[in-house]
Specification:
Pfam families: Hydrolase_2 (PF07486), LysM (PF01476)
Keywords: Signal
Helix content: 40-55%
Distance between the termini: 84 Å
Structural class: alpha+beta
Order of helices and strands: HEHHEHHEHHHEEHHEHEE
Number of helices: 11
Organism: Clostridium aciditolerans
Radius of gyration: 22 Å
CATH class of the largest domain: Mainly Alpha
Protein name: LysM peptidoglycan-binding domain-containing protein
Number of strands: 8
Number of domains: 2
CATH topology of the largest domain: Arc Repressor Mutant, subunit A
Oligomer: single chain
GO molecular function: hydrolase activity; lytic endotransglycosylase activity
CATH superfamily of the largest domain: Cell wall hydrolase SleB, domain 1
Length: 261
Amino acid sequence: MFKSKKLKAFLITLSLSLVSAKSVHAASYTVTYGDSLYQIGKLFNTSANIIMQNNGLSSSNIYPGQVLNISAKTYTVQAGDSLYLIAQKYGVSLSSLRQANNKWDNLIYPGQSLNIPGTASSTATQPSKPTVSKSVIPYTASDVDLLARLITAEAQGAPYTAKVAVGAVVINRVQDSRFPKSINDVIYQKDGGYYQFSPVLNGWINKPATQDSIKAAYEALNGADPTNGALYYFDDSTTNSWLWSKTVALRVDNMVFSYYN
């Protein structure tokens, strides 16, 4: 009788320990702007061909909102968890955990299922550890929020590339000796009595950021720069000859990004 109770208690403990960490299986990943099968495969330690096979795809074309079956380990959120702690638990970067779940805020809840990146191989006893993305400049949570709000104000409705590019311009200015040295100071800078960014003047900077803009802010902070170093952007309807005198780095729809010269 004693042995039976011990065995029962052991089995209950074992089952509870398995609740939060499930083995590799078909998880769901929702495609977002800028994704490719190659990038998704790299994130989950698999290949584009395998993803195509698992989803019955005849080509590598994917679209935002499409749900793909991905072989990945999942984790069920427990009380007291945070994305940072979960990333530490599995030895992955916080950035890759966010990407694997399209999760660009910090709100999680007990019972929520999260994909763990870099764990597609069923023979691995430990999750593989991808290269940790390092930010190109120091930043705080308030910096991310401010940058994302600027991106929302300036590029809402524009392609995702334009959102990342707006973020990159701010980061490039922080890194350039001719501009202030923080995200806050760059965005709120006045030159000749005029704000550098119109959303600060018209109040749009105070509107909440969209999820796409938050993601774009993180990408820019991690070094993504579609402009390759631009320091300005403007609408192509402007008649400002000084702006048009700059070398154009990138055009996305009606947005023009340019260098300092």
